[in-house]
Amino acid sequence: MNPAAVAAAWLLEYRRGEYAAFPAARALALVERPRVAAIPGAPAHCVGLMSWEGRYAPILDLACMAYPTDRAAEASPSYALVLAWQSPAGWQPGALSAPFLAAMAQVSDAQQCEPLPDRGLLPHLACSWFSFEAQPTPVIDVDRLFCGSHDTMP
Q1: Domain limits of the chain?
Q2: Sheet containing strand 55-60, strands side by side
Q3: DSSP three-state, residue 153
């Protein structure tokens, strides 16, 4: 019997007790108290832009994407998890609002589970799901998250 494959992932608690995971290889930094510039007319899930390493990174709010009718994005997050995503122009930084400190975890194939369909846009952004603390947790496709096509998803 082959042992289940294990991978490192960043876990972001986007809402108390609810998590999303991101491939460790895509994480660039965890920024405490990021300075955010608002973007007039941006979608509700867009917190704004932050300067990072001489570039601007959009900051998105997963809680707002999972529960779009609950609230607008948090204007000044406690943390921002900066991730690398592939655009047609090359690698770009993007960030996620993190109300709580994100942490590294080991994720195993043995933890794979069925998705939760009632989490707003998250099922459309996930490439797989696993069980963490007895809750289905999406592994988010970072490129899909930041490419902007989620604005037209069902």
Answers
A1: 6-145
A2: 27-32, 79-87, 90-98, 55-60, 46-52
A3: coil
pLDDT one-digit tens code per residue, 126-140: 999 999 988 899 999
Looking at residue 9, its pLDDT comes to: 92
Q: What is the pTM of this model?
A: 0.85
**Would you state the pLDDT for residue 154?**
42
**DSSP assignment letter at 109:** G
Q: Which CATH superfamily is domain 6-145 in?
A: CheA-289, Domain 4 (2.40.50.180)
Q: Are strands 18-23 and 27-32 parallel, antiparallel or unpaired?
A: unpaired
Is the four-CA dihedral 21, 140, 89, 56 of positive or negative sign?
Answer: negative
Secondary structure (DSSP) of 46-104: EEEEEEETTEEEEEE-HHHHHSTTT-PPPSS-SEEEEEEEEETTEEEEEEEEESS--EE
Nearest-angstrom CA–CA distance, 106 and 58: 27
Nearest CA to 22 among 6, 9, 31, 13?
A: 9
Which H or E element spans position 125? helix 122-125
C-alpha to C-alpha distance for 150 and 153, rounded to whole angstroms = 5
- pLDDT tens profile 15-52: 888 999 999 999 999 999 999 999 998 888 889 999 99
